[in-house]
Amino acid sequence: MTAGASVEDRISAASELFRQNNLPAAEAAFEMILEDHPKEFRAMHMLGAIAMGQQRYTDAVRHLQVARATHSYPEIHYDLGSALLHAGRVEDALASFNACIDLAPDFVYALFARGNILMRSAGKMEDGLADFNKIVEVAPDFLPAGYAKGNALMVLGRLDESLAAYDATLRLKPDFLEVLNDRGHVLLLLKRHDDAMASFEAALAFNPQFVPAMSNKGAALMDVGKHEEALAVFDHALTTWPNFFQVLANRGEALLKLDRAEEALKAFDTALENRHRFVGGMVGRVKALRKLGRAADAEEALTQLTTAYPGFPVANLDRA
């Protein structure tokens, strides 16, 4: 940039470097702007965006907080919220997303981020669902919101509404694999086994290597007593994703049904190696050890389970 260029020209040139993903050069250019114009909030905002792109979240928060202290506008609150969320400061992130939405009630990305935080907060799931509903209303083509709405309704136990939300999303994107898979799970919960299998098969038709759908297909086969077929599906899934803890645990359940308890125990142990304290693996270990007649080991495994999950319904396990 030639000497005497206006600040607007310099910001434009630095922003072009950012768009080209030349982050070191863009960072240097914005820092030089701030040397000459210390209160240029746009340059400080962009330094925060660059730090985010480099996963330097503490630096991003610092830059964005300085920019926000000078000027308050929706984008700065949203970007600061994103940086805070990545930095593990969830409550501060929520406050920043709230500030963004106060200024711009239809800011889709802030609504989506806030909705996801609220869905993970005790007693606030309905509020999270309200954010997803708002996005579907103002931006129906924002497909992640339709998917999230379906998931929220499933968690809330409103299965028919969840299914309707998934179907609405699939009308816009028929090959949305995650929606097809979770739709199948809801259909299983509704005891619509054939429809569930069709949903899993549809996902696999679009992508034969989509392991979550393989896992659920195998679980659906187990529901109707087809344990050998289920085991074959799990084994095939593990050729694509050898360490997927859910498939490993499902495989263990199939092996238990086939009276292959020693192999089942190994499957549950491998699942737990890949996801520490995974409840499916812990439950499976208890059942496998009991089936092997290793009462003391089973009792120890049960203690580990109830320590990790104090509210776990042990009576249900006793009936398994």
Strand content: under 5%
Overall shape: it is elongated
Would you identify the CATH architecture of one domain? Alpha Horseshoe
Uncertain residue segments: none
H/I helix tally? 19
- Helical content band: over 70%
CATH H-tier superfamily of one domain: Tetratricopeptide repeat domain
Order of helices and strands: HHHHHHHHHHHHHHHHHHH
Radius of gyration of CA atoms, rounded to a whole number: 25 Å
Instruction: Report how far the terminal alpha carbons are from each other.
Output: 72 Å
Largest sheet composition? none
What is CATH's topology name of one domain? Answer: Serine Threonine Protein Phosphatase 5, Tetratricopeptide repeat
- Average pLDDT taken over every residue: 95
Layout of strands and helices, then pairs:
Layout: H1 7-19, H2 23-36, H3 41-53, H4 57-70, H5 74-86, H6 90-103, H7 108-119, H8 125-138, H9 143-155, H10 159-172, H11 177-189, H12 193-206, H13 211-223, H14 227-240, H15 245-257, H16 261-274, H17 279-291, H18 295-308, H19 314-319
What are its keywords?
mainly alpha; 320 residues; Serine Threonine Protein Phosphatase 5, Tetratricopeptide repeat
Summarize the structure.
The protein has 320 residues and is mostly helical.
Describe the structure.
It is a single chain. The chain has 19 helices and no strands. The chain has a domain at 1-104: Alpha Horseshoe (Serine Threonine Protein Phosphatase 5, Tetratricopeptide repeat). Helix 7 packs antiparallel against helix 8 (125-138), helix 13 runs antiparallel to helix 14 and helix 13 runs parallel beside helix 15. The chain is mainly α and 320 residues long.
